[in-house]
């Protein structure tokens, strides 16, 4: 009886399960929309793919002939460009759940269907292949955690993402956080966090209201070897005065800080002159009431 039951289980399993595989193509995650979680140098492509497979926070690995190995979370890049095989050998490997038993001679077929994910704030994702791109679409568990799409929607706040160097790290609190989106999420859900900087790979420094007065903005989308330049800023725009450009976001005035914060500040303003790298912050303390 026991033996019969085991045979039954084994024969049932293969048709229903999916196997996680690394699917490699000639391609490169877009650097402008991409926020790598870690960068390794001197890594052969095979090792890079294997390391990504073993790393629960790696969903896509990128490597090239310079023996660089770059990991991305699925939520941390928008699309990968298809590349023609060349001396530079731009390769991307996607971690995908392939239905068991799927037999195909076309790599593109392996990308079909929705990938269930359900971790790190993401519910599921799918990849659309166009003539020049692998376009990744992912669903957030909580729509209000989606970084900056419509800042004046029904959500009370929005996380704006841009590049720059954060305030000195001793002014904030640094934690080990394995990927950029989780750093954004952590700052989003922490009532005292207004700004976070991925101050090292897999390091997230979070700053509270009033703890800094300026930071430096950059436009460089290149993959940084040691210190990423990823910044997220929590904004509270008014629907009546919705910022439409980066210039408007970084010049928002008198944003009301939620009352739950323990920071002691009531509102804040920003000033950024387009020709300058510097963003200035000013903080208005909560009135000290006497009764
Ligand atoms: C490989 O990627 C790194 C990081 O983007 C880049 O600095 C380097 O120039 C690339 N090498 C080649 C041969 O394209």
Automatic annotation (TrEMBL):
<dbReference type="InterPro" id="IPR006583">
    <property type="entry name" value="PAN-3_domain"/>
</dbReference>
<feature type="domain" description="PAN-3">
    <location>
        <begin position="3"/>
        <end position="134"/>
    </location>
</feature>
<keyword id="KW-0732">Signal</keyword>
<dbReference type="Pfam" id="PF08277">
    <property type="entry name" value="PAN_3"/>
</dbReference>
<feature type="signal peptide">
    <location>
        <begin position="1"/>
        <end position="18"/>
    </location>
</feature>
<protein>
    <recommendedName>
        <fullName>PAN-3 domain-containing protein</fullName>
    </recommendedName>
</protein>
<feature type="domain" description="PAN-3">
    <location>
        <begin position="152"/>
        <end position="274"/>
    </location>
</feature>
